[in-house]
Specification:
Elements: H1 14-37, H2 46-62, H3 67-71, H4 75-84, E1 97-104, E2 109-117, E3 122-131, E4 137-139, E5 157-162
Length: 172
């Protein structure tokens, strides 16, 4: 069930916490698959990761029923989260701004750090991208608006690029 912005609690509900925990738990095997399998896949470069994000946003707006199959690494999980309705509660109306990029070489993931506002304040989430064995880029965290953050050990970070947002809200 969708709630009006005023009806949402400022604190994450138990359902949202469970959603984030479930997504994070399901991503752990996917994120570690490159290291354990002995296959070395480099993390996607910044440009292609941003291109997938742009494509994801366009697909979400224009072909929402195709979103998971075209974007997600875990297609069925993505579909289940969207079908449950819990993922649409925080879905932003405007395209979130990329406020930073982190590359995780050990797991072969590039995470785009996003920020958007939903009337209750600023929200953040990660759109984490990996390259599958067939070379195709896929999102590990396609339901980024749930607030899920991709994380890895700090020793795996080889480059961090932070771009300050040029659009700051003047109202508080």
């Amino acid at each position: 069930m969708l709630l009006a912005p005023a009806a949402r609690s400022a604190r994450p509900s138990w359902a949202r916490r469970a959603l984030v925990l479930g997504v994070a738990t399901a991503l752990l095997p996917l994120a570690g698959c490159t290291a354990e399998s002995g296959v070395s896949r480099a993390a996607p470069a910044n440009g292609p990761a941003r291109a997938l994000y742009d494509n994801a946003w366009a697909t979400l707006q224009n072909k929402p029923t195709a979103y998971c199959s075209e974007i997600a690494a875990a297609i069925q999980q993505c579909k289940d989260l969207i079908a449950s309705g819990s993922s649409s509660e925080q879905k932003p109306e405007k395209k979130p701004t990329i406020i930073g990029v982190t590359t995780y070489d050990r797991s072969g993931v590039t995470a785009l750090h996003l920020r958007w506002s939903d009337g209750q304040g600023d929200r953040t989430g990660d759109f984490a991208v990996l390259r599958e064995q067939d070379g195709q880029l896929r999102a590990l965290t396609p339901i980024f608006w749930s607030g899920v953050k991709y994380s890895d050990l700090p020793s795996n970070v080889t480059s961090v690029t932070v771009k300050p947002s040029s659009t700051r809200s003047s109202t508080h």
